[in-house]
Amino acid sequence: MPFFEYYAHTKEGEVQSGRVEAVDENAAVQILQRNGLIVTELESVEGKSLAKKEITLFERVTKKELAVFARQLATLFKASVPLTVSLNTLANQSENPMLKRTLLDVGAAIDGGMPFSKALQEYPDVFSNFFIQMVKAGEESGNLDEVLNYLAEHQDREYYIESKVRGAMIYPAFILGVLLIVGILVLAFIVPKLLAFLTASGTENLPLLTRVIIFLSDTVRTKWYLLILGFGGTGVGIWQFLKTTAGKEIWGRVQLKLPIFGSLFQKIYLFRFSESFSMLIKGGVPINKALTITAEVISNTTYREIVLEAQKKVSQGDSIASALEGYPEVSGMVTQMIAVGEKTGQLDAILQEISAFYEDEVKNLVDNLVSLIEPILIVVMGVGVGLLVAGVLVPIYNSISSL
């Protein structure tokens, strides 16, 4: 069915806009009117010019916003509030324009007879396949309110882990950024004055370190645009390469072999695996399908391939624990606990315990990294100052002493 973008207002005069799916314009108007909207403008998406479409390039819906939405929707649904009314209510309360438009569109599609999960599929930039499949399982089992609560808990934990890691990286990134700026200023304005005495007497007898500093200073002062183009082009090139299949595979392997950080990444991905797998099983998704969806949730290609290979083995009759054995990226503790869960019929609970364990591990490791990064930064600053002294001040002192 085609989509129609609409502008309307409520009986209270509040202006709303969004997208509705219907057979034709008359059906779209009827759907909107049943939702208490007075249509002022309606136009087919296909016939609308690109210039009039809303720009949503920088808009996004965060995991925290999705968690709040899922929890509120579960509460309203449990209170027997109709789904379309709940979606419109939450849309009007949302401060995120993208989420607001999406919820209004989903509500209109449901009012037109479309299942909730299928309506969510129209917005992959907002709702992941994991989210959609969980909702679909809730629809099929009749436990949509419980599934929505599971989703809210999952989104909360995912958001917590990501914010914990991101927060730990802000401080060292800020310090390194300041050091880079200070270094550039020193090379551009201070070093030339200090080296004026040495360059006047000739640079052929200067130490190698001093000549390197002079070269860097001249480059920063006279060819700064080349540095910007070089670093900018390299950064963009790496960013684009990491979006390719080969780039993702290489980065996936490199992540797990990085000193110090490799262990952190491994724990994060094991947390995502156990957390997502547990939620899907608890939501009633079949094991094979749950493994496939879990592989999509894990952003690391190495772990994705492991989970997909395990899914193939499970579909052939192997147990999940035996399918995951033999991979160094999956710890023995994980496979042993999964084996216990399979034998006792408590796989979802065991997986939840594994995710809680790795959540604590990530938290502790991030805290330790923050404590470790501070002395590392102090050492880096000391090395930088030492090189500057050895390359500039020592030759000046030697030149003065020889006079």
Keywords:
single chain; about 400 residues; mainly alpha; 3-stranded antiparallel sheet; 17 helices; globular
Number of beta strands: 3
Provide the spatial order of strands within the biggest beta sheet. Answer: 2-1-3
Stretches with pLDDT under 50, minimum 5 residues: 47-55
Q: Provide mean pLDDT, rounded.
A: 83
Short structural description:
The chain has 403 residues and is mainly alpha-helical.
Please tell me about this protein's structure.
This protein is mostly helical and 403 residues long. It contains 17 helices and 3 strands. It has helices at residues 25-34, 63-78, 83-93, 97-111, 116-121, 129-141, 144-194, 196-200, 208-222, 224-243, 245-257, 261-282, 287-297, 301-315, 320-324, 332-344, 347-401; strands at residues 3-10, 15-21, 37-44. Strands 2-1-3 form a 3-stranded antiparallel beta sheet. Strand 1 (3-10) and strand 2 form a beta hairpin. Helix 12 (261-282) packs antiparallel against helix 17. The longest helix is centred in the C-terminal third of the chain and has 55 residues, at 347-401.
Strands, helices and their partners?
Elements lengths: L2 E8 L4 E7 L3 H10 L2 E8 L18 H16 L4 H11 L3 H15 L4 H6 L7 H13 L2 H51 L1 H5 L7 H15 L1 H20 L1 H13 L3 H22 L4 H11 L3 H15 L4 H5 L7 H13 L2 H55 L2
Antiparallel strand pairs: 1-2, 1-3
